[in-house]
Fold this sequence. Notes:
By secondary structure, the chain is mostly helical. The chain has helices spanning 2-9, 15-42, 66-72, 75-105, 113-125, 128-138, 144-149, 155-161, 170-196, 199-207, 212-240, 244-249, 271-280, 284-314; strands at residues 45-46, 61-62, 257-260, 263-266. The strands form two sheets. It has a two-stranded antiparallel sheet. A two-stranded antiparallel sheet has the order 3-4. Helix 4 (75-105) crosses helix 13 (271-280).
Amino acid sequence: MTIGFIFISFKLRPMNDFLFLFPFLSLFLLFLGWPVLYSFYLSFYETTLYTDWYNVFSDMRYVGLKNYEQLLQDPQFYWSLFLTLYYTLLTVPTQIFISLGLAILLRPNFRGKIFFRTAFFLPHILDTLIVGSIWLYLLAPQGWIAQSLAPFLEKESLLNTGLLNHSWTVLPTIAFVMALKVSGFGMILFLVVLQRIPQEYYESAKLDGASSWGQFRYITFPFLKPIIFFLAMTGTLMSINAFTEIYAMTNATGGPALQIAGQTVTSAKISGYYLFQQFEDGKYGYAAALSYLLFLLAMILSWGYARLLKISKNGTI
């Protein structure tokens, strides 16, 4: 039946194309498709730290929707969602602003543009763990950046703890670092669009007496809308799944602890890191349920961004 469906879908002609795709599809189904399906099955079971580590799934116990019910009653889960929202609001606009600023600055008439474009894009291709580890040393209490910022912040607190060990500065600092890391990718996308805008539009606007802001608002910005929505969507999804940067820049602690409404929480435990903690504690069923709730949230947000992009193309916003 599957082969017949493939033949019908491709109108009996591109079977050779499917054969070329077969190695990729096989690996995809084996290493990604099957784990996704199995994790959904696992979300209805319970495991503990006392599970036999040499046969880790030997004593799984079926609990139905218990993992989902506990998750929806877990204050730590809601705290992680709040921090994820906060982290997203810090990261996404900053990334878009820096990317657009770099693209405007490094347009074709800028001398040395090749060097600077390469320099700003390079961090994007580096592993997040490497970038986080480098910034961990730069932002250490006695590091160069902390020492430079000390006169402008709480000097005693900064010199003793550093930006990454203070509950109020750890998440904004990580958000800014990640915005810098990925801004090179957005810069390239914005550059492509900016170079495709016909110059006649700007010449006509200048003849009509339009200011620089007016040219940007009525000519440049409409062309940039799809890229802005794309970066906002991908940035939001990355924030939901963010783990490596939190792990690297907080030394696997999730940030300093603080008290919120009688609960002891950590100041950088966003949803991706909270998921890692459940897995690390051997709560595989609970972690699987959490992953599917986050997946549902990501799907809803993706649908919302897609609707906004469609409305934007129709010119109603």
